[in-house]
Write a structure and sequence with these properties.
The complex is a heterodimer. Chain A is α+β, with helices and mostly antiparallel strands. Helix content of chain A is about 40%, strand content about 30%. A five-stranded antiparallel beta sheet of chain A has the order 1-2-3-5-4, covered by helices on one side. In chain A, helix 1 runs antiparallel to helix 2 and helix 2 runs antiparallel to helix 4.
Chain lengths: ~130, ~325
């Protein structure tokens, strides 16, 4: 885990910047085009959640290694209202983006690892990892 | 992540065959691939990727703009792929719920099971069929030591699991009443208080309670807003509605129930039912209660059990084998 790059999310347009960075980064790490597209979609969902519900936050990227395999670690951080009922937002069919997005369950499906911590009134941190196959 | 990789060389060969010949057999094979892919949970984007790779294999110098367009298509399909996965997971979850309900339905059958009385001089038939898996109708026979039999027919307004849960409560409340407590009006009054205190106000229960005395050939009864039954007079071959006044259970804790009594004569029948019988539908049309009586009459020469089953089968067929409401019918015939 060397240095970490973050993209700030404030405007809807920033979502595109985060996607672009994530796609280039995952390409460099050796992901194929399907996984690149999946990673970009996961970044979109995370960044949209920040934009829609927290107002501002950032998406950070790291390279991770684990017994010979390489992967991408993406952390979404915000200081928004937090999530009251995490089980509920992780339920299929309960989509937070007005029924249009894949929601957090979608992010979980797109990635290999998924971890979320959230405190009401303090913010949310979501950490996801995908390994190069 | 994918259970099985698509066979790229097979796909490429088929694609080439189709591009060269536009042969239907290649398309048939494509259909097989599609079905196998669904079976093996191969994602939508994986199939498009295979297509792109196959295309590049056949045309090594595929124009760049076409390659870009394929990447664009791949991107568009990612969310569809996700939606499909979600759909598959939800379908599995639904199957789990279904199997849980069928276990609950079996439990309900055991919990609410009752034994049809066998009394000299009378012939009794019972049929009770739920519209869905769980039955919101309830009937029960209580065999008293003095030879009298308590008969309950009830219907929860509403169907399915909430109704079934409610019925289990009713049964255990009734069992907790002391055994000398068997007057229909008293029983309904006690039960009304139990329902009023314990059941959600949006839920109502109608009940007909009868105390049948085979030795004296009498029946006394009270009703809590339940669908009226019918009395068949063999002497002049007519039906009479068994009217009984009383408010549905659970509305007010001070409800009082009037008790009625009648004598049963040779060849006569007592018909108790729920609104699933009288409100059978043929297409969009509710049948008239005269039709129910006519059907009962047409089978009345049969033993009571065959009689109720024949009536049920008649209305099951009339409704295209799809019950809209739980169906319960009890007929007591006095031997001639």
């Amino acid at each position: 885990m060397d240095f970490r790059t973050c993209v700030n999310i404030q405007k809807e347009w920033d979502i595109v910047g985060a996607r672009q960075f994530g796609r280039d980064f995952s390409k460099k790490l050796g992901f194929g085009i399907v996984d690149q597209a999946r990673i970009a979609t996961a970044i979109s969902e995370l960044a949209r959640n920040i934009y829609l519900y927290a107002g501002s936050g950032k998406i950070c990227f790291d390279e991770v290694e684990n017994v010979g395999s390489r992967g991408i670690c993406i952390v979404s951080l915000d200081t928004g209202p937090g999530i009251k009922d995490i089980s509920q937002v992780m339920e299929d069919g309960f989509s937070t983006s007005g029924g249009l997005g894949a929601g957090l369950p979608g992010v979980k499906r797109l990635m290999d690892e998924f971890d979320i911590t959230s405190k009401e009134g303090e913010g949310t941190e979501i950490r996801v990892v995908k390994w190069v196959r | 992540m994918d259970a099985l990789k698509l066979d790229l060389s097979h796909y490429r060969q088929l694609l080439k065959q189709y591009i060269d010949t536009q042969d239907e057999s290649a398309l048939y094979e494509a259909e097989q691939i599609s079905k196998r892919s669904i079976q093996h949970n191969i994602s939508l984007e994986e199939i498009i990727n295979t297509h792109i790779n196959a295309l590049e294999g056949i045309y090594p110098d595929l124009p760049e703009n076409i390659q870009h367009s394929m990447s664009f298509l791949l991107e568009v399909m990612i969310s569809y792929g996700l939606a499909l996965q979600e759909f598959q997971d939800l379908r599995e979850a639904q199957l789990e719920i279904k199997s849980e309900i069928s276990v609950a339905a079996r439990m309900q059958n055991t919990l609410l099971s009752t034994v049809k009385p066998d009394v000299d001089g009378f012939d009794i038939g019972v049929v009770s069929v739920p519209a869905n898996q769980m039955n919101g109708d309830y009937h029960h026979f209580i065999h008293h030591a003095d030879g009298t039999v308590g008969i309950t027919v009830a219907d929860v307004i509403g169907k399915g699991i909430p109704a079934a849960l409610c019925m289990s409560m009713i049964k255990y409340a009734m069992e907790s009443f002391p055994s000398e407590h068997k007057n229909p009006s008293e029983i309904l009054e006690s039960l009304n208080r139990v329902v009023e205190r314990n059941v959600d106000p949006s839920m109502f229960i109608t009940m007909f309670y009868a105390l049948f005395n085979p030795a004296a050939s009498t029946i006394s009864y009270s009703s809590a807003g339940h669908e009226p039954g019918f009395y068949y007079h063999a002497a002049d071959d007519t039906f009479e509605e068994i009217r009984a006044k009383g408010v549905v259970l659970g509305v007010t804790d001070t409800a009082q129930y009037r008790q009625y009594e009648r004598e049963i004569h040779a060849g006569d029948m007592i018909i108790l039912l729920t609104d699933g019988v009288t409100e059978c539908r043929q297409g969009d049309r509710f049948i008239e209660s005269e039709e129910v009586l006519e059907v009962i009459k047409s089978f009345s020469h049969l033993p009571a059990q065959e009689l109720v089953e024949s009536v049920y089968r008649h209305f099951e067929k009339l409704q295209d084998f799809h019950l809209r409401d739980d169906f319960t019918l009890i007929i007591i015939k006095k031997d001639v």
